[in-house]
Amino acid sequence: MAIEVRVPTILRNYTGGQKAVTAQGGTLAQLIDNVESANPGVKERLVDESGLRRFINVYVNDEDVRFTGGLATEVADGDTVVILPAVAGG
Amino acid sequence: MRLYPRNVLTIEQAIRDAIVAHARRDHPDEACGVVAGAAGSDRPTRFVPMRNAAQSPTFYEFDSADLLRLYKEMDDRDEEPVVVYHSHTATEAYPSRTDIGLAQEPGAHYVLVSTADGAHEGEGPVAFRSYRIVDGEVTEEDVTVVSSYAEAG
Lengths: 90, 153
Fold this sequence. Notes:
heterodimer
């Protein structure tokens, strides 16, 4: 078992075009680090020094992690993580 | 990266009219939504007006839960967001710096509608323009309105 991470179109150039990758981790932060080691460059698009980027949404089992602890959100085998860029503008 | 060589948006009259009606209805706040279509088809067929969670005359953002629901639904139907639209209610129908900075769908036609100068009232003309926004670069494209896609071939 592992955690499935669904990757949006704009980040698929880091995953060899794959729509989803699998990785391990106990928290979202660890999971992102593990995704980064297999897909270099992806982390910088997701996080900055203050945490998750403002216009990136991450959901663990359909819950927006902004409401569950951000990068400290716990994840476990069998979970599904979805990354979606915000659709926003001015 | 030039993965999506397109220079025209072909859209049905009824969908164009639905976007304009949404923009008029939400004026003076910005209206937003997508028109989904079969992946790879470049045909916007399913009009999906979205709630502007920002409820603002100068900003729009899809609500986070609505966004997830929308993308799961498109995934289940093998669709993609062929058009991402929003309105400007006090400025022209051209992508703002914020629009360019936040555009994250390189395959989409970004449609801008302007309801400035009272265009939200009555049946007056509403500016309706389309762009591709890739890596911070904006390219305007032609808009061809057809009565049905069958006619467009």
